[in-house]
Design brief:
The chain is of the alpha/beta class. The protein is about 45% helix and about 15% strand. The chain has 21 helices and 13 strands. Strands 5, 6, 7, 8, 9, 10, 11, 12 and 13 form a nine-stranded mixed β-sheet that branches. The chain is globular, with a radius of gyration of 24 Å. The N terminus is likely disordered.
């Protein structure tokens, strides 16, 4: 996913239209869903956009809905998830390094190859529609090249291509088959072991349902399920509902703040903090890294039922605004500030440290993320994660509970951070009994580790600590 070459030929892209005045609905021409997918992919690869942000806007601007919107979404998300594997196959089929081709042509070829290798679209239709797309959106001069390359891709199925490109190195070959950078596969294997790794990688490639959280005291899970037109109850969280389809923002409960979108694993780790046994005062809670506010909203609803109050801290002002929106009407005070320096020592009964992390536990929800991350990103995050956990323990009173949470299973930013802080003294691990009793297979030594392939949640990590001294 390199930068757009400076000599690329200009085309008409959805990104060019973003600042134009939106036409009345009846005057907006409908755009082919393959073109919408191409423009969304190109915005991600060339402009570093996020698919979950640009695609919904493009679908609305082009009057795509129903089956056409579903097709554009599958093409966009599927292509972006599989990008590394698709590029390797295209390089072999074209006989040249993929970076020798201009970015928008690569985007179109990946879109065509995804249809050929991952979808039940007839080969002739996938090739013909992609060549037409190249003519219209890239350049007629390269349509012949696109046709030739895609015909070579169509000559083999995905299994045949991955076998042909296999090197005999197990991690390389698994990473190619399941479209993950090899370093991510290696990090997952360090936690799971080799036998479970293929299932974990495969689960990252399955689009999850939308998980909703029914805020306790505001709406019941049953009422939210009925409102979402048959949404199933979550497996583990007492407040989770799985929304089968549609835009959650259109649900009255979500629009009015009675419920919100939140992965079930995220709900579980927040609730474990609230359910941990605590002696003495239990009136002041702190959410130290609160944005965008899902955990704050859930904890705020629980706190309201118990007569507790929450200070929610977020360093970025725009994310602090999201926290305010997520916790409206709840006993939550939002602070824009740095969690490392916030507050008075020993002032909190419960502290949530939902630390900034690599996000590798949510790859199924963020299709482009796996190709943007680098191992060095984790090395850069670890000092911050450690400082935030130290601050969380500073804020907790003796006997208070601190939950350290990441949406990542990687050892360096999970158990290694916790163990390094424990060596300083003044805290002890607490077994997360409430969560482990509810969720089989979530135990990772003395910690919690959820997985998409085991639990249908994001790969959330949790360590529960009790402050034992005056550090």
């Amino acid at each position: 996913m390199g930068p757009r070459p400076p000599d690329r030929e200009p085309g008409v892209h959805m990104s060019d239209k973003r600042n134009r005045k939106r036409a009345p609905e009846n005057d907006r021409p409908k755009v082919n869903p393959r073109r919408v997918a191409f423009d969304a992919i190109n915005a991600v690869t060339a402009d570093n956009a996020y698919a979950n942000l640009v695609l919904p806007r493009m679908l609305a601007e082009t009057d795509n809905s129903g089956r056409d919107a579903a097709l554009a979404t599958e093409l966009t998300y599927g292509t972006l998830r599989s990008l590394g594997t698709l590029e390797a196959i295209l390089a072999a089929a074209s006989g040249r390094e993929i970076r020798q081709l201009q970015q928008d042509l690569v985007d179109a070829l990946c879109l065509g190859a995804y249809q050929l290798l991952y979808m039940r679209i007839p080969a002739h239709a996938a090739v013909a529609t992609t060549v037409s797309l190249v003519k219209a959106a890239v350049s007629p001069r390269v349509s012949g090249l696109a046709n030739a390359v895609l015909r070579k891709v169509a000559a083999k199925d995905l299994e045949q291509w991955t076998e042909e490109l296999a090197t005999g190195d197990r991690l390389h070959d698994l990473s190619l088959r399941y479209a993950h950078p090899q370093w991510i596969s290696s990090e997952f294997e360090s936690v799971l072991g080799p036998e479970e790794l293929p299932a974990a990688l495969a689960a990252d490639n399955v689009a999850p349902p939308v998980h909703l959280c029914a805020k306790p005291g505001r709406i019941t899970k049953g009422d939210l399920s009925r409102e979402s037109r048959g949404g199933g109850h979550g497996q583990w969280s007492p407040y989770a509902v799985y929304m089968p389809s549609g835009d959650p923002g259109r649900l009255p409960a979500v629009a009015t703040g009675l419920a919100h979108v939140q992965d079930e694993g995220s709900q579980l780790v927040a609730l474990q903090l609230a359910e941990a046994s605590l002696e003495g005062s239990d009136k002041r809670w702190i959410d130290l890294c609160a944005g965008p506010g899902g955990k704050t909203g859930l904890l705020g609803a629980v706190a309201a039922q118990r007569g507790a109050a929450i200070d929610a801290v977020e360093i970025q002002s725009h994310r602090a605004e999201l926290v305010s929106k997520a916790s409206r009407g709840l006993p939550v005070t939002v602070h824009t500030g740095d969690g490392r320096t916030f507050g008075k020592a020993g002032s909190a009964d419960r502290v949530l440290v939902d630390a900034p992390c690599s996000g590798l536990g949510a790859l199924r929800r963020r299709p482009e993320a796996r190709w943007r991350k680098q191992r060095s990103d984790i090395d850069d995050l670890v000092p911050l994660q450690r400082e935030l956990l130290v601050s969380g323990l500073r804020l907790a009173r003796p006997g208070g509970i601190v939950a350290y949470v990441t949406c990542s299973p990687v050892i360096a930013e999970t158990e290694a951070v916790v163990e390094s802080v424990l060596k300083d003294g003044g805290a002890e691990l607490v077994r997360p009994e409430w969560l482990l009793k509810r969720v089989p297979g979530a135990e990772r030594g003395e910690f919690v580790q959820l997985w998409p392939h085991r639990h249908g949640t994001d790969a959330m990590f949790l360590a529960l600590l009790r402050k034992t001294g005056n550090r």
